[in-house]
Amino acid sequence: xxxxxQKVTNQVYAYIGPLTNRTPENLGLNNNxxxxxxxxxxxxxxxxxxxxxxxxxEAAVKKITDKPIVGVINTGSQDHRWLGNxxxxxxxxxxxxxxxxxxxxxxxxxxxxxxxxxxSDIFANTQPVVSSKPFEGNQATFTIGETxxxxxYFGDAHFPGDAVLWxxxxxxxxxxxxxxxxxMLGVHPFSNVASWQQxxxxxxxxxxxxxxxxxxxxxxxxxxxxxxxDYLDKLVKVMALASExxxxxxxxxxxxxxxxEFKHLKHYDSWHKKILSxxxxxxxxxx
Length: 287
Known about the structure:
By secondary structure, the chain is of the alpha/beta class.
């Protein structure tokens, strides 16, 4: 398959990964990755699922610019967001992340490498490497070259510690896994759907012209609401009421198996019921 960055706006590019699951062919790059060209050098937004995907991203960057990769900014803790950090750090890049994100990376790193090794043994030599000086608090503003970046944490979402990256001058939001378009959200047992919904609505205050979601095409707020915000809103509303009424999980899933407004999303048929079940159990446990 082809690994290419597409232009979003001036000096900002995005690799749009396939909507499929991880495979040896896609090197775990079934997510979106950002690229910003600064006066100092190239900056990657997330670094891939390990050394093989990091090398592939590096080659794709070289098709856009001759500048070195001087920075990697992590928006999250899922494997394909950061397990390429070590490769770029060894080449001199600085790793940027919020401490919220780094704490989860440290907790999950070894398990994520093991998971990627099951996708392909080419990931076996990957070592989890986190930012050595993560930013404390919920927000950090910094510059690389003459480009201003703002990392923001609005609440736990797909993974604990998920963050977004805002480029105020370019009006570009790299949402990480706070926003998905074109495909279903990934809800794990450790995801926090109630917090995710709140975080999404907090992020809506950002006046983004371009949204590079965690997965799917480059979007705007209308599409982000349609594919992520509306689904989160319905999940929270339905599951909060069902847990208050002490319904059983099987009945809740059966009653809500058909949400036609979301059937256009990739993986709806295989993931929707699982998401319903996991979300209900979260609300039931919180009662």
